[in-house]
Amino acid sequence: MRAITTRPGVADSARLDELPEPPDEPETLLVDGVSIGVCGTDAEILSGAYGKAPPGRERLIIGHENLGRVRSAPHGSHFAPGDLVVGVVRRPDPVPCASCAAGEWDMCKNGLYTERGISGLDGYAAERYRLEPAFAVAVPAALGDLGVLVEPTTIVAKAWEQIERIGARAFWKPARVLVTGAGPIGLLAALLGRQRGLEVHVLDRVTDGPKPALVAALGAVYHSGPPRDLPAPDIVLECTGVGELVFDVLEIAAPDGIVCLTGVSSGTREIPVNMTALNKQMVLENNVVFGAVNANLRHYRTAVDALARADRPWLEGLVSRRVPLAGWQQALIRRPDDVKPVIVFG
User: Fold this and answer.
1) What total number of domains does the chain contain?
2) What is the pLDDT of residues 271-330, one digit of tens each?
3) Residue of 265, 222, 262, 220 whose CA lies nearest to 244
4) What does the alpha-carbon distance between residue 180 and residue 337 come to, in Å, rounded to a whole number?
5) Is there a domain that residue 323 lies in?
6) CA distance readout (Å), 188 to 150, 155, 227, 318
7) The overall pTM is greater than 0.90
8) Does 198 share its domain with 123?
9) Do residues 179 and 203 touch, judged by C-beta distance below 8 A?
């Protein structure tokens, strides 16, 4: 079978390899790969920035945004041949910490978790792979190949869940949401905001291409100017990781506002910040800022439900290109009109 592999820590070492079939593991699903999404994490792993191969190996099969079709399933697994599935990315640490033991491996406290396609476990960029039923999430047949959007949606499903839990600390009736960044994560965050009946604003620096139209089709408002020109949001989902923008949205959040940071910046430039003034504002206005990363099974199921309720033509607009496995490198070349490139297994 074919799989995309890389040598973690070594730039430009990715290649399409011919590998042995997955070993026989009777208690697991045998899954045929349907497609994988390509994101910034994949690009950074392939650049040599990070990543970790499985123990005793030099190379890692990449791919964490995934969709597969069950080829065979063990009795009692609640899956059957032909079912569409998404594999969970993170696995709990072997210790385990209290969070991992409770099924909240996205909140792992000791950092000993593994992640398929990222750290310590092969990913899903293979024509076939094994998947434990406990870490497989069913995708409705009606969602079809758009199930490849499930994993990125889990990130914002978790973010929204935690925003609402924090909001429950007191009387809180939010009306206005600001999403910074109109990439796939930002657009999916905006989708979940509109599904909650909220007024959604999306800020991005581009002024043409598909992003403004995708935002408008949600019934949201697209902006490309300075954050200070925007109305004060009750909720901010920051999806870029750009340091300057993080502090800008902290300053414009409404009283009792909640700011969720989902983006991670790879930049190293220092930013001068008046922390005294920012601290005073956050204290006096009861503001909250928190970070959210990864997802557990609950968030995967929430993501599936959200995508199933979404307008299918709108979701189709997020998948800007479908690239065959043989030409997988093309999916990593960013184009001006790209939203979410996807590699498909024929």
Assistant:
1) 2
2) 677 778 888 888 888 999 999 999 999 999 999 999 999 999 999 999 999 999 999 999
3) 265
4) 18
5) yes
6) 10, 9, 20, 9
7) yes
8) no
9) yes
